[in-house]
Amino acid sequence: MATQQSQSIQTLLEAEKEAAKTVQQARQYRVQKLKEARTQATKEIEEYRKFKDEEFRAFEASHAGNTQSAQVAIDKETEIKRAEISAAYNQHKDEVLKKLLDRVTLVTPELHRNLKKQT
Q1: CA pair distance 40, 32, nearest whole angstrom
Q2: CA pair distance 66, 84, nearest whole angstrom
Q3: What would the pLDDT profile of 76-91 be if each residue is shown by its tens digit?
Q4: How far is CA 66 from CA 53, 73, 77, 90, in A?
Q5: Cβ of 102: how many Cβ atoms within 10 Å?
Q6: Prediction pTM value
Q7: Which three-class secondary structure string do you get for the chain?
């Protein structure tokens, strides 16, 4: 009976070692699969990033022409307004200067309306 018990214990120890090996292999397999999944996810993220960058560049290029043409139109309009303002200034500067000088030099002395005559 002792040999049978010792064989049973030996069988159990061998089964335990086999189970430990199986568990260790399963852990290694899981770690390997996690690494592969991370690598694959990183690769997919990079591909998606490249795709979105290209899409953005195409969008930017298609709308850049609109921005440039709008800028040219605004520049033309600004030049026209500047020319109009300069023309108005040149046309009216003598008249405005004369009015200012008249106001400063032609003073008519008057008593203030709140000043009472003292008798």
Answers
A1: 12
A2: 27
A3: 999 999 999 999 999 9
A4: 20, 11, 16, 36
A5: 9
A6: 0.44
A7: CHHHHHHHHHHHHHHHHHHHHHHHHHHHHHHHHHHHHHHHHHHHHHHHHHHHHHHHHHHHHHHHHHHHHHHHHHHHHHHHHHHHHHHHHHHHHHHHHHHHHHHHHCCCCCCCCCCCCCC
Distance of CA 45 to the CA centre of its chain: 21
Query: Tokens 């090996």 label which residue?
Result: 21
d(CA 98, CA 103): 9
Among 65, 44, 66, 63, CA closest to 55: 63
Please report, rounded to a whole number, the percentage of residues in the chain having pLDDT higher than 90: 61
Token code pair at residue 9: 């214990």
